[in-house]
Design a protein that fits this description.
The protein is mostly helical and 95 residues long. It has a domain at 34-95. The protein has helices at residues 5-12, 19-72, 78-90. It is rod-shaped and about 80 Å long.
Length: 95
């Protein structure tokens, strides 16, 4: 809704009856703006946490692959294999 100068002055002075509508619309605009900023922050945090978690899990996967290769090639004993495997499993969600 567009106001002419006279209508705007009349509304601001309290004579137009649309003051509640203007305040409501401004409040809604501010609320939506703040809500969008919050979603952006939360979304960024979720993406960052997911990427970090994925990096840790990939590292655990690579360590487990290397551990199994070392054990198959008899570079480490069964006791060392079990000990390191438990350490990797303790730091991983997947294993």
């Amino acid at each position: 809704m567009l106001y002419g100068t006279n209508q705007w002055v009349k509304t601001c002075q309290g004579g137009g009856g649309d003051e509640k509508n203007i305040v409501g619309v401004l409040g809604l605009v501010i609320l939506v703006g703040l809500g969008q900023a919050g979603c952006e922050l939360i979304g960024g945090a979720i993406v960052g946490a997911g990427a970090t978690g994925g990096g840790y899990e990939y590292n655990a996967y690579r360590q487990m692959q290397q551990l199994e290769e070392d054990y198959k090639n008899e570079k480490i004993s069964r006791a060392e294999y079990e000990k390191r495997k438990q350490q990797i499993e303790a730091g991983s969600i997947i294993y």
